[in-house]
Specification:
Blueprint: E1 8-10, E2 15-25, E3 33-35, E4 40-48, E5 52-53, E6 87-93, E7 96-99, E8 102-111, E9 115-118, E10 121-132, E11 137-141, E12 143-148, E13 153-156, E14 161-165, E15 175-179, E16 187-191, E17 195-212, E18 217-218, E19 225-234, E20 239-241, E21 280-283, E22 287-290
Parallel strand pairs: 1-3, 1-19, 2-4, 2-20, 3-5, 6-8, 7-9, 8-10, 9-11, 10-12, 10-13, 11-14, 12-15, 13-16, 14-17, 15-17, 16-17, 17-19, 18-20
Antiparallel strand pairs: 19-21, 21-22
Length: 295
Amino acid sequence: DTEAPGTLQLISSAKLTAPACAVFSNSTATDGLAAMDASLLTADYSCSAGGAAGAMGNYSTPPVTDCRPVDDPLAARGVPANLSCDHTNFAASGLIRTLNPGVYCGGIRISNSANIVFKPGVYVIKDGELRSDRGGIVGGAGVTFVFTGNGSRLKFDPTTVLAFSAPETGPYAGILFYQDPAAPNLETFEISSKTASILLGTIYLPNGIFKVHAPNKVGDKSAYTVIIARRLDLGSTANLVINANYSSTKVPVPDGVGPNAKLAPARAPDRRRPAHPPGIVRCRPRVRAAKRNDP
């Protein structure tokens, strides 16, 4: 996807609101960064390894082009060693329940106004979806969702109410969603929820499409959010808010992202491209959206 168009794309009336952050795209396509239609990308700084498409009025600041790609800072983390199934094809419908960490083979399906609280820990979604629809209510503090295997992805429909925050300690401290870097390309991780104000932590989807087509603000009550994805797709009237209030939470920022990120010079000296991560949105005391190269 380092040569794909619209790897970081806003369409319709979508917004990316990251006023204290920098946004990066690693795609070298002439429209690798695209703010189309009536969309609005608000950032302190926008940078594309290729070009930028859309009216300049769709950007709060003029995007810089031909930037040096940004390295993938989390590729070495990996997935848990033990992937033996604790649950298979877990489903909850119309009930209130607390879930324990573990390996959920075939995924987790929540529906019919089920109210599910995830206890702190690591939830491995193996060969299936983390899915909520028809009024599901989901939430948890100190949680990480690891996605591995075929068809491992998430989908929260417009009726889902969700609020998640990443762990303060442990091997996945500061990481909310982690996709196995060896996962198949271009699985879709979709949030369409009307109520999704808290996504506190780092969202790492090196081979995934992070699709936000929600009708309202997403992540606006999070202290901070960092996003690294192969592609970022914002549509409808979604407003993805990227905050950078790192000091207001005990959830740490992983090394290599947020205020710990190392930014390359703004403009590349030539067109040579080393291996870099797919799509990334991450904040320094600014926000960053970047894309990663294929190995």
